[in-house]
Amino acid sequence: MASVIESAWQYLITHFSDFQLACLGSFFLHESVFFLSGLPFIWLERAGWLTKYKIQAKINSPSSQGKCIIRLLLYHFGVNLPVMIFSYPVFTYMGMRSSLPLPSWRVVLAQIIFYFILEDFVFYWGHRVLHTKWLYKHVHSVHHEYATPFGLTSEYAHPAEILFLGFATIVGPAVTGPHLITLWLWMVLRVLETVEAHCGYHFPWSPSNFLPLYGGADFHDYHHRLLYTKSGNYSSTFTYMDRIFETDIGYRKLKASKSAEIEFSSEQKKK
């Protein structure tokens, strides 16, 4: 497997420059993963399939879904792509490279874990700041236009928020100067995580059922359903920051109440 990956990487660095791979390649990879993972949830909503796993009964209209896609394309080409281009010198200055040899899996794993921990910390505080009255009204309310989120709404936000919270995602790689393949892996994992957190479905195979402290769709859907002053659940991937600062109390009480109702119902059926 390692030789196959190295051969494929050799092809890329032979036929494309570092700038093309880091900027255009990253943009193409992001768009591909984002839309391929997010569009199926629009189809699920419209087809009415797997509704028993849908967290909210409300369905988004085709027009609202279409509005989201159009705005996303505008933001991606007008904000994300320029940011990738202009941040390229910073990443190269910090040591990012695309040449062979590829980093060992231990180095990649250690960096990815570090990125998740740092991103969760920075995102939590940035997200809480966005829920202050003025910033919510003028910036973050754009993201909350969809009280019933679906996969693609994960990146539907005000341009200022894209830059502000996007910093949480890139700060880790920016300070460590990773190999480009590590940066790509991090980007893919973050895109898949945020799409899943906004998908609006809680499946038996959802990561939150297996990974301790993983937020996921059920956790973040609660955040979208409530008023900005009372929502809580500000965490990104893992929820340790909400636990530490007790900003998930409402969510945990709701979960405990639902568990008690299910347990009571089961006992009544047995009788």
From TrEMBL:
Keywords: Membrane, Transmembrane, Transmembrane helix. One of its GO terms (cellular component) is membrane. One of its GO terms (biological process) is lipid biosynthetic process. InterPro entries: Fatty_acid_hydroxylase (IPR006694), Sterol_Desaturase_Related (IPR050307). It comes from the Eukaryota. It is found in: Membrane. Residues 113-247 form the Fatty acid hydroxylase domain. GO terms for molecular function: iron ion binding; oxidoreductase activity. The chain crosses the membrane at residues 21-43, 73-95, 107-126, 162-186. It holds the Pfam family FA_hydroxylase. Belongs to the sterol desaturase family. This is Fatty acid hydroxylase domain-containing protein.
